[in-house]
Write a structure and sequence with these properties.
Distance between the termini: 46 Å
Radius of gyration: 24 Å
Number of strands: 0
Oligomer: single chain
Structural class: mainly alpha
Shape: globular
């Protein structure tokens, strides 16, 4: 019966391979997740068994995507658990502050070493401060996300807004939890740990929402984002000077949709998978392209990161600069969004991306009274025309940052802008429609789906919730088949895995 099975090849499926990651949309993950749900069901009466099952699966999932860097995840977990609990119990304010600083230095030190060492060496070389060779440092997948999760625990303990958990097991599940370990959402310990400590309850509504989100996530990530990225956006941004300005502009429109569908699609999958396990992760996106300002955009985009920085960086900075009033807030905004850019990666493009957004926000804050006076004078305040105008202007301001964000260098970004403003050739648009008809349809479909009112989403979700389990399984199976039919030969990692 087992004579035809290649056990060596079967074993290789469980060994880390840098060319073979365990993504949510792979058939191997679907098989493993089904097995996990069965084991999870069998251990339903034992809280500890369920937690250890999830810990084991989460560690394997992280190992398959990052190799032996799971040991670094272990280290971060132990350090933050023990230092956090020690600082909470410290009687002296000085000792508490010392332990808090130590935890932050270790967390940011590890993040800085793996993510920014070679970047700073390049800067030193550019400044002729030496001739440093780049170090052979690999970036652990998800380190930016789980480091911020760990820091949120320590910060909340330091400010006294939560009590520590006495269970290393529970804290480990918070740190290791596989749905959001690689690319968020960056959940807070104060929200997640109580779920670990309480009994798991999975309602009919949870299952319906999970199926809906998983279907949405698969379609957005694997059908829209991957297809337009591979077949159009990547080609243009690889050599923008080979394409006209209209193609560069269309690629930028396409990239804005691609990165949204890629990241929000992954988030949908993460939230849906977590719901099937009885855990609720925070929402990370709220229709970002209907934002009426850049500030509004950041309330809708990557919400777990923007709120993290709002609570733990912007507000403390704003308090520190409060004597400067509105100018102090502008400085706090500027520093916070400089950090946003740097958080995304060790490249000048990300630094400039952060500076673009910090400039937008600082200027917006400093001119808010003048703009309001103009709107009032023109009788535009509260009108639909003003809202649509603000949405269009905001979206195109965001595209400027998107060009820099997508480019592999500032020179590439410069070439994209050059083609758009100096070599546009609008007539090429009709040739592009013919040559890239599938890409054009998916871009149009993606934006239409994005702007569909949330009330319709809710109705579809409710319809799935009220459907029999067999129908839900059939709908999910159909979506999986669609994904396997259209996906490329090589699965595309989530863009934010690189951050």
């Amino acid at each position: 019966m087992f004579s035809n099975i290649d056990f060596n090849k079967l074993l290789q499926l469980f060994v880390y391979d840098p060319q073979d990651h365990l993504f949510f949309s792979t058939s191997f993950f679907l098989f493993l997740f089904l097995a996990l749900l069965i084991v999870y069901r069998l251990t339903a009466k034992s809280r500890n068994a369920k937690i250890f099952t999830l810990i084991f699966f989460s560690l394997f999932f992280y190992y398959k995507n990052s190799g032996y860097f799971f040991l670094l995840l272990f280290l971060s977990t132990f350090i933050n658990f023990y230092l956090g609990n020690l600082l909470y119990k410290a009687k002296s304010a000085g000792i508490k502050r010392l332990l808090f600083i130590l935890a932050l230095v270790i967390d940011l030190g590890l993040l800085g070493y793996f993510k920014y060492t070679n970047f700073f060496l390049r800067i030193l070389n550019d400044l002729h401060a030496g001739n440093f060779q780049p170090l052979d440092i690999l970036l652990p997948v998800g380190i930016s996300f789980y480091t911020f999760k760990a820091m949120s625990y320590v910060i909340e303990l330091y400010i006294g807004s939560m009590e520590p958990t006495n269970s290393l097991k529970d804290f480990s599940l918070y740190m290791f939890f596989f749905p959001n370990i690689l690319a968020g959402p960056i959940d807070r310990a104060v929200n997640f740990l109580p779920q670990v400590e309480n009994d798991i309850v999975i309602t009919k509504e949870d299952i319906g929402r999970a199926i809906f989100l998983i279907m949405c996530g698969l379609f957005k990530k694997n059908v829209i984002a991957d297809y337009i990225g591979i077949n159009f956006v990547d080609r243009v941004y690889q050599v923008p000077l080979r394409f006209t300005g209209v193609e560069n502009l269309l690629a930028t429109y396409g990239y804005a949709l691609q990165v949204y569908c890629d990241f929000s699609g992954y988030t949908d999958l993460a939230i849906g998978i977590a719901l099937l396990l009885g855990y609720k992760l925070m929402d990370n996106f709220n229709v970002p392209f209907i934002a009426t300002s850049v500030a509004d955009y950041w309330r809708r985009w990557h919400i777990s990161l923007s709120t993290w920085l709002l609570d733990y960086m912007f507000k403390p900075l704003q308090m520190s600069f409060r004597k400067w009033k509105i100018y102090g807030s502008a400085v706090a905004i500027f520093l916070t969004f400089f950090a946003v850019g740097l958080w995304h990666g060790a490249n000048w493009t990300y630094v400039v991306f952060g500076l673009i957004h910090s400039t937008y926000l600082a200027v917006s804050l400093l001119t808010i009274k003048y703009r309001k006076a103009i709107y009032d004078k023109l009788h535009l305040t509260g009108t639909k025309f003003l809202k649509v105008f603000q949405i269009i202007i905001t979206f195109h301001l965001l595209l400027v940052g998107a060009v820099v964000f997508r480019s592999d260098s500032l020179k590439t970004a410069k070439n994209v802008f050059h083609q758009i403003f100096h070599f546009f050739h609008g007539a090429v648009f009709f040739q592009w429609i013919q040559g890239y008809s599938k890409v054009a349809i998916l871009i149009l479909l993606g934006y239409i789906l994005h702007f569909i009112p949330k009330s319709i989403d809710k109705k579809v979700q409710n319809l799935i919730t009220e459907s029999p389990l067999v129908v839900q399984a059939l709908l999910l199976a159909v979506m999986i088949i669609v994904v396997f039919q259209v996906e490329s030969a090589q699965l595309q990692p989530v863009i934010y895995f690189n951050f």
